[in-house]
Amino acid sequence: MSMNTQGRPTSAGDTSVSYTPKTFTGNRALDMEEPLIFEFGHFDTTGVDFDMPDAFEMELGGHERKAALELPGLAEPEAMRHYVRLSRNNYAIDAGLYPLGSCTMKHNPRLNEKMARLPGFGDIHPLQPLSTVKGAVELIDTLAHWLMTMTGTTAVAMSPKAGAHGEQCGMMAIKAAHKAAGRDPKIVLVPESAHGTNPATAALLGYKVVSIDAKDEDGTVDLEALKRKIAEHEGDIAAIMLTNPNTCGLFEREIIEIADAIHKANAYFYCDGANYNAIVGKARPGDLGVDAMHINLHKTFSTPHGGGGPGSGPVVLSERLAPFAPLPFIRKGEDGPVLVETPEALEAGEQPFGRMTAFHGQMGMYVRALSYMLSHGSDGLRQASEDAVLNANYVRVGLQDLMSLPFGERPCMHEVLFDDTFLKDTGVTTLDFAKAMIDEGYHPMTMYFPLVVHGAMLIEPTESESRASLDLFVATLRDLVMSARNGETDRFSGAPYFSPRRRLDETSAARKPVLKWEAPAPAEAAE
Ligand SMILES: *Cc1c(COP(=O)(O)O)cnc(C)c1O
Questions:
Q1: Membrane-crossing residues (predicted)?
Q2: Assuming Cys at both sites, which of 29, 297, 436, 481 could form a disulfide with 312, CB separation 3.0 to 4.6 Å?
């Protein structure tokens, strides 16, 4: 081998050798096999080094923990490595395009992060005296103002911590409004295409869910079917829960007629606002007859989705529902915004149904969302919606000759829905197709949802993808479709081949989740 004068080889070596080594550690270069923290942390180790406190008297009235805490201890560098290694196995919007339909996985601008870390926002505590957090209260109030302005509504409950939590909040306000009017309706109408959280929310609050059929030709609500259901259950309907644009990525064009029919039946219109990203600055839900709508700040307003949290799901409310908004809320006082936290502080006409959270909601998300809004301005927000719709249609047009559109080649809103007709007779399933995308370095699209379409594949690229990024994505899917058509089933049936874990038993994971780590039983005596 030729060397330079320092003894360093001047060529790369023979990379043509084909050999898959088994490593001693189980790691594959940067792809690390990381055990659970419980498996290698030691209960007797700790990363902190405090002196033992002087003798003191417990004030827990004998309720103090008797057994050891049994949290795995690690030194700081070990803890750091553990989580960094785990994070390398995670797909993230910062790693690549994340086309998960209905989830609006858009870029989280770094400016938002910077604002959220300002000490006056990042280092405050909800139990601090109000006089020391006036700016934070004002920020919540400013965000509330813009959410109401954008949606054309009268009030907003800021505290819910996710979309589903917002649904619960909005439906509790609706329940309280019925109760205040001396009514006790038992039914909530939910269209077939609804997100699972909608019927779950209604059921959680004790309502009976009645499903509304979708029109075969486009998956939107069948207005006549809705009217029939209303007539059938006259006087017993509390609300309809509807998403617009719906989960097929299509705008419910008869939304005004739907709202009118619901209001005539003395019921309320709950709109699932998870898809608000498609219409910000274009249409105001309040003008469409919406009485309550949660806004997923972690979708539309670019705050991070976290690992299941923290989200933030403020709920805007129409004039009719405004009095029932939960505590705490901000009232305009003579000396600026006043935080109303307790029933004693209420004024005439304020009838909150209760409280959703211990404190005021997700402060960090409020800062990020407001930072996003103010840095875009009204024209920028409108353009973001337009670009989200444009990008989804760009993907649709790039794929519609090879993949199948269940409702024809009509324009979509911010997400495009394909079905599995194009995979027929290829021996490749929707699931296989999605797994092969993982090998290509993409998070799969939303699959098998909405339920109104067989083998659904819902793609939402969002506005923050560049044209080059969309082109590569479209080209990748085209390559996968051609491969399926050409009978290259191996590429799919065993996929993913390159991920840290291969196919998991997703059914067992969902049905029998193991949520708690148990120490392994002592090894059986060898036979
Ligand atoms: C994301 C989503 C929800 C739930 O929001 P979470 O913040 O995840 O609780 C509800 N409905 C639709 C249509 C969604 O996309």
A1: none
A2: 297
CB distance 271 to 315 below 8 Å: no
Residue 453's identity, in one-letter code, is V
What residue owns the CA closest to ligand 1's atom 6?
Answer: 163
Q: Which domain holds residue 457?
A: 378-500
Distances (CA, A) of 437 to 94, 102, 418, 441, 442: 17, 18, 15, 7, 5
Q: How far is the CA of 298 from the centre of ligand 1 (A)?
A: 10
Q: Where are the beta strands (DSSP E) in 298-426?
A: 315-317, 329-333, 336-340, 416-418
Q: Cα(297) to centroid of ligand 1, in Å?
A: 11
CATH number of the structural domain spanning residue 338:
3.40.640.10
What is the torsion angle, in degrees rounded to the nearest 10, for the CA atoms of residue 469, residue 470, residue 474 and residue 477? 60
Question: What's 128's DSSP letter?
Answer: S
Q: Of the ranges 263-272, 307-316, 394-403, 473-482, which one carries the lowest mean pLDDT score? A: 307-316
Q: What is the pLDDT of residue 318?
A: 98
Whether 196 contacts 173, CB under 8 Å: no
Which of 244, 295, 296 to mutate for ligand 1's pocket (most ligand atoms within 8 Å of CB)? 296
- Evaluate whether residue 487 is within a structural domain: yes
| Residue whose C-alpha is closest to residue 308's, from 165, 157, 505, 511 | 165
In a domain, 255, yes or no: yes
Segment 98-145, tens digit of pLDDT: 999 999 999 999 999 999 999 999 999 999 998 999 999 999 999 999
**Beta strand 268-272 pairing with 237-243:** parallel
CA 185 to chain centre: 30
Residues 352 and 489 in one domain: no
Among residues 466, 430, 298, the alpha carbon closest in space to that of 372 is found at 298
